[in-house]
Write a structure and sequence with these properties.
binds uracil, Uracil-DNA Glycosylase, subunit E, about 45% helix, disordered N terminus, alpha/beta
């Protein structure tokens, strides 16, 4: 409507208004009636269609899932309930990679949904993202019994899948969470304490190692280290850094 009005010549607008006033006068008004514009409470915003990259990646990720199948490549299959593939935006700019599923993840088939997951999700939210904006996966897809660390043969059998997930998603940055993810992806024997806080390269992708969220369940005061690591990632991605959480 706005464009129609601006497209009209001033003279035409005046003429139309005069006509309108004449009509109101004939209807018995001696002043202009109050016009009640109804403003809708919220204007529905159409959901953005997934980008071609995201829908193509979705298909490629499903192909990896199919290859994993009902996996028996290592001994973890004997005790697992569910394979935890990973989830999030298939075209994510940022990926988080943990060690392996715990009890809650084994039960639900979803990564980082237990206590450590709540800590990770809180960090993701404080960075200005939702879980759906990033991609979350693990080095091994089946739960090591009793939440022990995955063993060398288990990592060897499974790491190819997370590597393929990274290749498909092609994130701009990865945060590896804890020793297992960092040592596996970056092929290093250095500890997380030595590796965190600096970017490292994985096949041309910038990797920021940081502490595993379960570490903060025992040491909440140390969360600031991971916040600082995550701030470097935001700056690298050119995303405005939110205020430091209290
Ligand atoms: N710890 C991990 O490393 N990954 C999960 O998915 C949950 C807990």
């Amino acid at each position: 409507m706005g464009s129609k009005i601006t497209a009209m010549a001033d003279r035409q607008i005046k003429d139309k208004l005069i006509d309108l006033l004449e009509i109101y006068k004939k209807m018995g008004y001696d002043s202009l009636p109050e016009i009640n514009f109804k403003i809708p409470k919220s204007i529905p915003v159409p959901k953005p269609k997934p980008s071609p990259k995201a829908s193509n990646n979705d298909a490629l990720l499903n192909a990896i899932k199919d290859d994993i199948g009902n996996c028996t490549r290592c001994k973890l299959y004997t005790t697992r309930k569910n394979i935890v593939f990973g989830e999030g935006d298939p075209g994510a700019r940022l990926m988080f990679i943990g060690e392996g599923p715990g009890a809650d993840e084994d039960e639900s088939g979803r990564p980082f949904v237990g206590r450590a997951g709540k800590v990770l999700e809180s960090l993701i939210n404080k960075l200005g993202f939702t879980r759906e904006d990033v991609y979350i996966a693990n080095i091994v897809k089946c739960r090591p019994p009793g939440n022990r660390e995955p063993e060398g043969d288990e990592i060897a059998a499974c790491r190819g899948f997370v590597e393929r997930q990274i290749e498909v998603i092609a994130p701009e940055a990865i945060m590896t969470l804890g020793n297992v993810a960092t040592k596996t992806l970056l092929a290093t024997d250095k500890t997380i304490g030595q590796m965190r806080g600096e970017f490292h390269d994985y096949n041309g992708i910038s990797v920021m190692p940081t502490y595993h969220p379960s570490y903060f369940l025992r040491n909440p005061s140390k969360k600031i280290f991971t916040w600082n690591d995550a701030v470097k990632v935001l700056q690298f991605l050119g995303i405005e850094v939110p205020p430091r959480p209290a």
